[in-house]
Amino acid sequence: MTKGKNGLTYAASGVDIDAGNAMVEGIRDIVRSTARPGADAEIGGFGGLFDLKAAGFIDPILVAANDGVGTKVKIAIETGSHHTIGIDLVAMCVNDIIVQGAEPLLFLDYFATGRLEPDVGRAIVSGIAEGCRRAGCALIGGETAEMPGLYAKSDYDLAGFAVGAAERGRLLPRLDDMTPGDVVLGLPSSGVHSNGFSLVRRIISDIGLPWDAPAPFAPDRTLGDALLEPTLIYVKPLLAVLRQSAGLKAMAHITGGGFIDNIPRVLPETLSVKINLSAIPHQPVFAWLQAEGGMSETEMLRTFNCGIGMVLVVAHDEAEKITRLLAANGQPCVHLGSIVARKGKSVETTGVLFG
């Protein structure tokens, strides 16, 4: 046997097992705060468990989704503000599950970094746990990977994995039920959410604004803080609608691709959606981005949510009831338009964006 010449350790190569173990111990109570029927939210095993029967399901279909946060994570890294980026991570996954008519049940995360800093890791996981509480799902596991040489020391990336369930026969979209005259509702976003940040960062780089400068579109906040406003999680108000109304036919999460790419994913080929852009609540961040980037209306609509984070297709005679149910659960909505017979484009627009 050849003896090692230098007595190297894993820590000497840049991977600190003790730091990883310390982080796991430091987040146990945070993770436990996400427990729900079906999962005790304990971590440390080789896999997470979930009991569908204990969660009240009889004949469930599972729905799974995974996503990341994109280059928004660079703003968290560069500002040193890590406590909300985990909310974005959960939101991007669970919002994709609720649009299929399923209840998010469990979540797992993957956190990869060049050098594990336990305080940063705890802040990120605290945000993930907050997102899980907002969605009503349990954080049942995750993975922390320290990979020097692949990531710069302070850099990290995140991935999330969520699983939900719906009783058989309750999944959305209900393509065969959609007809011309169905109402299209929009749920306002909290801002840019988690898409388009490569373009956002390019615009800010071209302008030369530092992250700690007052945000031109929100002067009472720093630019970094305003852009890190987390993605809204729409799960709980939409579950209330699903449980109390049969009039919800389809939902579209407005992420990368905006209105133009996301809404057609839940429409039959024979139908289009007609949207009144003037009905979209005005959010100064989008008008500012359009002006500074010199972007066309079409480019805005296919890059950003432009102020609407979720689109609902509802039966005409249930629209008022669903609007009231959303309001009763703290979720405002706007009447964006209607479903029409398709003659050309799958998304037709009227009115003026940010007018």
From TrEMBL:
It catalyses: 2-formamido-N(1)-(5-O-phospho-beta-D-ribosyl)acetamidine + ATP = 5-amino-1-(5-phospho-beta-D-ribosyl)imidazole + ADP + phosphate + H(+). Belongs to the AIR synthase family. Keywords: ATP-binding, Cytoplasm, Ligase, Nucleotide-binding, Purine biosynthesis. One of its GO terms (molecular function) is phosphoribosylamine-glycine ligase activity. One of its GO terms (cellular component) is cytosol. It comes from the Bacteria. It is an enzyme of class 6 (ligase). It comes from Candidatus Raskinella chloraquaticus. The keyword Plastid does not apply. Pathway: Purine metabolism; IMP biosynthesis via de novo pathway; 5-amino-1-(5-phospho-D-ribosyl)imidazole from N(2)-formyl-N(1)-(5-phospho-D-ribosyl)glycinamide: step 2/2. Its EC number is 6.3.3.1. The lineage of its organism: Bacteria, Pseudomonadati, Pseudomonadota, Alphaproteobacteria, Hyphomicrobiales. Residues 180-347 form the PurM-like C-terminal domain. Residues 62-165 form the PurM-like N-terminal domain. CDD domains: PurM. The keyword Cytoplasm applies. Signal peptide: none annotated. This is Phosphoribosylformylglycinamidine cyclo-ligase.
